[in-house]
Amino acid sequence: MSIPCESEINAFMEEVEAKNPNESEFLQSVREVAEITIPYIEKHPVYKEANILYRMVEPERVIMFRVPWVDRTGRIQVNRGYRVQFSSAIGPYKGGLRFHPSVNLSILKFLGFEQIFKNALTTLPLGGAKGGADFDPKGKSDREVMKFCQSFMTELHRHISKYTDIPAGDIGVGKREIGYLFGQYKRMENEFTGVLTGKDLNWGGSLIRPEATGYGTVYFMVEMLKKAKEDFEGKRVAISGSGNVAQFAIEKIIELKGKILTVSDSSGYVYAKDGFTTDHLKFMMELKNKERGRVSEMADKFSELEYFENEPAWNLPCEVDMVIPCATQNELDEQHAQNLIEKGVRFVGEGANMPCTTDAVHLFQEKKVLFGPGKAVNAGGVAASGLEMAQNALQLSWERGKVEEKLLFIMKNIHAQCVHYGEDKHGEIDYVKGANLAGFVKVANAMIDQGAV
Ligand code: NDP
To answer: Which fold has domain 212-372?
Structure first.
């Protein structure tokens, strides 16, 4: 695939690589943005004069800290905590916290960097950030998770507030963890404020926030299908993951009469030849959210489901129209993309953050598969978090319909921005270009307005 301004991009990447060695995920996300924005910057020297891209890839602040906690046997454990406050150009830092053993600085910098553009696309005044720890909540008791969260917040609290940085959940950080984190923040600051989003409804949360990333992903794909004069009815959809994003994407697609063929977790995938039903979904939600079990148990319970151990959903044995990866970064590589193309895939939407490798994205684009990048497709989650912040500031709660209507409006708007910046004169849409340029222009203009800060 030929790339315009390749030598300028390579020169830029060499400098970024020298400054950030061994940060492969971060460098991957920077390259995606550089490939799109550098040709644009070459045509718009105002951004070059202000050295915008070099400034954008440098986080405003990175905080790294020790998190000691006592486990159930009385042993003192230690994990590493992080908060990457990447950009406050258009609003206070905003982005989730991830608790997973794979967490490191590279992963959080890539997620924080993506978040800048994603948040800009929502049209809400939100800067970009990400944080977390290499802590694994799996197999820990509620008490151990609480102790860890309290210790994590004991350090984090001095770096966040409702005006500076408002964290949320991500992989391994759900309602339970947000509760413990919020409790400790409130205790330390003696303040009940909307400093975290993803809170329970009883104490400042928003209706639709749990559903927002999955629903928003589907709303974006509905717009993509509409533009191609199609709809969800009868579409064969492969999904990965079985967590928050996957669950609500599946719920919405079943409602729209699409056929979900796969779900997965880190141990394997489950295949439903005739599509998953609402009964399967209900069982999966109980299994994952309450019992913290494995998807293999779905095939034990329902004889019509088949389980494939240690295999990704992308090896599914049948034809497929659409793929929505909802698990984790780089879970779909070039070989998987090739297999999916051979199986007939025509639409891809990233429910997760950067689940497709760069080579996979290039292959999809080369083969004219319509490809929606995560920073646009899954922005519904942070958009609903922004709506939660607005309700907290007003000290009231909006009804479900009102929040859902706003979410739908935002997702349609994000799709429209992608089309505005990504459509060529033949009517072909490059969603990667559209999402990156729309986000870049908004943040870059704000940075220019605010001077060299
Ligand atoms: P959850 O923790 O709820 O679920 C993650 C799911 O992915 C689990 O089913 C997990 O399986 C699976 N998974 C993790 N690693 C792998 C792997 N290597 N291979 C296969 N499956 C794996 O997370 P979310 O649903 O909240 O997040 C999923 C993705 O969406 C992430 O990339 C996140 O950053 C992104 N996202 C989430 C938003 C949100 O609002 N929640 C907002 C925007 C993006 P297991 O149970 O085995 O760990």
So the answer is: Rossmann fold (3.40.50)
- Is 212-372 in the same CATH topology as 61-197? yes
pTM for the model stands at 0.96
| Residue of 99, 115, 170, 177 with the most ligand 1 atoms within 8 Å of its CB, for mutation | 170
Q: Can you tell me which residue has the tokens 């459509």? A: 423
- The CATH architecture to which 61-197 belongs is 3-Layer(aba) Sandwich (3.40)
Q: Of all helices (H) and strands (E), which one includes residue 316?
A: none
Count CA within 13 A, CB hemisphere, residue 437.
24
d(CA 172, CA 169): 8
What is the Cα–Cα distance from 228 to 230, expressed in whole angstroms?
A: 6
- Joined together, the tokens standing for residue 209 give 């926030």
Give the residue numbers annotated as catalytic, written as ranges.
Answer: 130
Of all protein residues, whose CA lies closest to atom 48 belonging to ligand 1? 266
| Strands across the sheet containing 268-272 | 305-309, 268-272, 259-265, 236-239, 322-324, 347-349, 370-372
Domain ranges of the chain: 61-197, 212-372
Q: Please, what are the averages of pLDDT over each run of 10 residues along the chain (453 residues)?
A: 88 98 97 97 97 98 98 98 98 98 98 98 98 96 98 98 97 96 98 97 97 98 98 98 97 98 97 98 96 95 98 98 97 98 98 97 98 98 98 97 98 98 97 98 98 95
Ligand 1 surroundings by CB, under 6 angstroms: 169-172, 213, 240-245, 264-267, 326-328, 331, 351-353, 378, 381
- Kindly report the CA angle at 439 between 172 and 33, in degrees rounded to 5? 80
Nearest to residue 336, comparing CAs of 312, 367, 353, 319?
312
Q: What is the pLDDT of residue 194?
A: 96
pLDDT at 292: 85
